[in-house]
């Protein structure tokens, strides 16, 4: 896993034998075990790393009015009970333009106003709740509703 993995050597003296993984990948999910021997003492711990991902289809850039699909997947072992989507911190009603099914959200006609932070929240049968965020960027025209611009002859127009 090198060079994505590191251990803080200076922290070892204080009993901190943390492992840092940056960036985390989907294949990093699983059980991690550590053993540390110091003089005659042996310390051990184990941690399970779960992974949650939000993916976009088709991949960026998203063009205004072209359908898109956000998918939220997790390595969690329990049964998925509910998926909720939030846009810029507000719960998204899954009707009309937004359709949610089995961890996915389809936006039939994305507008410039749909750009921003999208967070999926997954709730499992054991009551665990996990979430991940995706920053959606949309290419389109973000100008006046009437795209007519007047300019004086001989001047510049933007």
From TrEMBL:
Checking InterPro entries in the record gives: Ig-like_dom (IPR007110), Ig-like_dom_sf (IPR036179), Ig-like_fold (IPR013783), Ig_sub (IPR003599)
Query: A Gene Ontology CC term for this entry?
Result: external side of plasma membrane
Show the GO MF annotations. Answer: MHC class II protein binding; protein tyrosine kinase binding
Q: Work out whether the entry's keyword set contains Transmembrane.
A: yes
The answer to whether the entry has keyword Aminoacyl-tRNA synthetase is no
Which Pfam families did the record assign? Ig_2
Supply the PROSITE patterns for this chain. Answer: IG_LIKE
Family membership, please give it: Belongs to the LAG3 family.
Q: How does it assemble?
A: Interacts with MHC class II (MHC-II); selectively recognizes stable complexes of peptide and MHC-II. Interacts with FGL1 (via the Fibrinogen C-terminal domain).
Indicate what this protein is called per its UniProt record.
Lymphocyte activation gene 3 protein
Q: Which organism is it from?
A: Syrrhaptes paradoxus (Pallas's sandgrouse)
